[in-house]
């Protein structure tokens, strides 16, 4: 066996690191529906997402690549890549519809002021058919794209999208901050309803879920009606839990999700996977929320079966 070679030269070390950084890592895989050709052959498209460090741009870049697999039920006849990989710009989440005809994409860009703006796009094959500015609608805070809470789930009818976002909070300002609309006899409440401004709470601390989940404190379940572009924030979720990893029930009349208890504190969820959690179901027709599992264990990564209405969890 050859002895390991020790590299001490900084230039050689940087060259080796640059070479190793060119190997991408697989982030996500999506298998499309099975298609039968007119000659009886069967194939499926596989969509993959990869991450690779770009040392010159000093950032982690994402790119996608598609593969096609032909099979005869017993064995793979052919498998290969379709074209070259292409970089994904600003894409945080993506999900194909059950039929494979549509694709939803959560994208984040910078506006003219340099502020982050989130869009939810719907693609039909090679054209974009919907682009909803979630930031402008202001129904909620930023959408969760992390593996702990995040989801982008199509309804079985392909008419609605389900996702997780930060709960919208009232705007805050100082007692000593005045605006053009303030009058000498104005009260402490500037607005009513969604536009209410709370004075004196601009430095209130909102506990978040800790490392890698900073600024993620109170997630809410959101449903987008693709046809009307209306967004609904689901009600009836217990206030003592944070919902995440949600998906539709087989008949699209309800949503199944994992709920993590806030007590004794939120901090450290990502690296403490055995935190108290349970599986919940919220009925969209009546707004009732019920627990599907025991509430003294830990639940993670639930998956449903449309055929048997069975939910599997890790």
Automatic annotation (TrEMBL):
The keyword Hydrolase applies. Keywords: Hydrolase. It comes from the Eukaryota. The keyword Signal does not apply. Residues 41-289 form the Acylamino-acid-releasing enzyme N-terminal domain. Belongs to the peptidase S9C family. This is Acylamino-acid-releasing enzyme N-terminal domain-containing protein.
């Amino acid at each position: 066996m050859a002895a390991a070679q020790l590299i001490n030269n900084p230039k050689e070390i940087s060259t080796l690191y640059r070479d190793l950084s060119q190997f991408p890592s697989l982030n996500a895989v999506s298998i499309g529906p099975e298609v039968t050709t007119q000659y009886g052959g069967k194939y499926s498209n596989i969509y993959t997402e990869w991450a690779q460090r770009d040392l010159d741009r000093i950032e982690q870049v994402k790119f996608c690549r598609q593969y096609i697999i032909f099979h005869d039920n017993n064995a793979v006849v052919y498998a290969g890549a379709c074209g070259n990989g292409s970089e994904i710009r600003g894409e945080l989440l993506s999900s194909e519809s059950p039929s494979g005809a549509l694709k939803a994409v959560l994208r984040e860009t910078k506006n003219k002021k340099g502020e982050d703006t989130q869009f939810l796009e719907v693609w039909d094959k090679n054209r974009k058919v919907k682009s909803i500015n979630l930031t402008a609608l202001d129904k909620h805070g930023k959408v969760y794209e992390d593996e702990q809470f995040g989801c982008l789930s199509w309804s079985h009818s392909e008419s609605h999208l389900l996702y997780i976002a930060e709960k919208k909070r009232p705007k805050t300002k100082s007692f000593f901050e005045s605006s053009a609309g303030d009058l000498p006899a104005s009260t402490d409440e500037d607005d009513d309803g969604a536009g209410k401004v709370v004075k004196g709470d601009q430095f209130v601390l909102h506990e978040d879920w800790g490392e890698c989940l900073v600024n993620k404190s109170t997630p809410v379940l959101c449903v987008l009606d693709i046809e009307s572009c209306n967004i609904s924030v689901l009600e009836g979720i217990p206030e003592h839990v944070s919902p995440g990893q949600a998906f539709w029930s087989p008949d699209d009349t309800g949503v199944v999700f994992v709920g993590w208890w806030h007590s004794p504190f939120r901090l450290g969820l990502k690296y403490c996977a055995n935190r108290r959690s349970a599986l919940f179901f919220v009925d969209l027709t009546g707004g009732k929320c019920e627990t599907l599992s025991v509430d003294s264990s830990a639940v993670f990564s639930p998956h449903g079966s449309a055929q048997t209405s069975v939910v599997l969890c890790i």
